[in-house]
Amino acid sequence: MLCAAIMTDHWEQVGWERAALAAFANTSNTALQWLLDEKVVKIEDTGSRKGGGTFLVPMNGGIWTMCVSLEEEEITILSRVGFPKQPLCTNYLANSDEEEPRADWQHRMQNLSISCALVCLIVLGSAALVGAFGICKHQISAVLITGVMYLLAGLFAMFTLMIIHFKRVQRVSARGGHVDDTGDGVVGPQAAALPLLSARQFSTSWSLELGWGGVALATTTSLLWILLSKIMRYNPISTMLL
């Protein structure tokens, strides 16, 4: 469950509050065009007749990716109205200057969650190998170490879950600014969408719930491995065999 949660990309979702967008459009000169049954919003530039523009799209992300939540057919339809051709997924592991700059707070939290997730995967793989060795060779110490390793995997997974949960927490600076100035949910020139970022909504998704279930399962598994080591140590049958 932990591996499945870490490898999926539905930890968080990015959406847009329609009422806030409509209210902003009514109080400014910005024209908004709703597309795909109000799933995507195009910011219209009234002073230009070009086909391009800025699009506000829903997105879903994992620990190291953030992708546009649109089907290929929907992308094709949007391309007719100027949807830019660019990669639909952002890989946080890639270190490329072409990628959008992320806020320093978001960048540090993202890197920390990736580190904890990678440690969790390494510990899970090592625990499986050590546990198999302990069972096959009847090594009590290896079985006990396996229990501790599963407990560590659950601990690092819990760190990852907590970081993802609090990654989008707003921090108010001395000037009252909004720290989360990343371009998640914006496709195209971001300058036109800056006033609309307050209408952006972040929510967690089913991968986070799957991860919490994995943490509970890893903790239970750890206790069972430790109990198995105690049974192997004090079992009279094992003593007679030894």
UniProtKB/TrEMBL annotation:
Keyword Transmembrane helix set for record: yes
Gene3D superfamilies documented for this protein: 1.20.140.150
UniProtKB keywords: Membrane, Transmembrane, Transmembrane helix
Bilayer-spanning residue ranges: 112-135, 141-166, 210-228
Protein name in the entry: Uncharacterized protein
Organism: Diatraea saccharalis (sugarcane borer)
